[in-house]
Structure to design on (40 residues):
């Protein structure tokens, strides 16, 4: 049971799961404003 959402970095395309986007992208280092929420 997953209540998390998926977030995608619009800069590098990395996807992360969680209730909120990461503060910074672990791959390219941009801040959370560059992440968009994806619907499952
Ligand atoms: Zn990124």
């Amino acid at each position: 049971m997953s209540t998390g959402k998926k977030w995608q970095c619009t800069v590098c395309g990395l996807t992360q799961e969680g209730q909120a986007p990461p503060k910074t992208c672990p791959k390219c280092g941009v801040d959370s404003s560059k992440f968009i929420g994806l619907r499952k």
About this structure: The beta strands are 5-9, 15-18, 35-38. Residues 9, 11-12, 14, 25, 27-28, 30 surround zinc ion (CB under 6 Å).
